[in-house]
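Might I ask for a little of your time on a matter of protein folding? What I wish to show you is a protein chain and, alongside it, a tokenised description of its three-dimensional fold. I should value your view on which stretches of the chain appear to form regular backbone elements. You will find the record immediately after this paragraph:
***
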Amino acid sequence: MQRAILDVLQEQTVIGDVLNTSTSFGGIRDKGVGDAISQVCGTIDEGSAYFLRSDIQGFFERIPRGHVTDFLRARLADDDFLNLFERATETNLANLAHLGDDAALFPLGSEGVAQGSPLSPLIGNILLREFDTAMNGRGIVCVRYIDDFVLLGPSPSCLKKAFANAQVELSRFGMTAYDPMANTEKASLGKVDHGFQFLGCHIKPGLVQPCRSARQSIVQAVDEALDRGRKSLKKAATTSGPQVPKQRYAQTLVEIDHILRGWSHAFAFCNGRSVFHELDRTIDNKLADYRRWAAKLCYNHSSEVRRRVAGVFLLADTEQAESYWS
């Protein structure tokens, strides 16, 4: 239902005006991280020498839904649809009494939207439409991806003034952005020549590559897949029949292939290709270790065990169905 409501809203002219904001990219059809990074790089090429990166604290949990609903009611003459929209943005928990303190994690009042909802990015973009207008101009470009944004400009003083203005804009909704002077992990300020992180990328003039945490995440994902594979292979070497686990050597490699393809697609726009080669070497070594480990596991075992471990179905493991013979 939320997806259907989103599809209807995206076709409305007033929503199109919000989604066509040239410096906003998250949760917008036919736009993505690569487009946001391209905008950042283009702005740097045009002469912006400094950056200020930040994000909005607890953004989705603090969104005043009534503000967005009022915006839509003033522009869309369909009370039934808007009532449906309001109900679709509410969070209702059937097990609220059993959640205890964890209930505080869910937006149950008039503020906040569920991050997994298809409507949440659109709601955020509607809320910040005036923020986008206010933050762009007078030599400053603000590239925003939902609650993450980077200010680009000619000097630190200009960016600090712009950031102060951003805090004023956000305070209208009871929100605040991380201050680079106080929280260097969530925000930063400096020269673009020194490089900075934004949307999982490390950006310098002429160079974009996955940031360190993104590189660590893909290696960790491969490690976790290999650990699951090892556990499954051990079980495959000691069981038979329908109890043999489905994921074994071959299936683990297929899972890793899917993981790598997905990660590669997410960073396909990066031009820092040396990072990809470096990661490939690391993953090659892990796969070689896995191959040697599997070979050692199968040593002195029967051909049936080897095949089970390899992940090729053994006909002898077929579970007999009920029939005349049973």
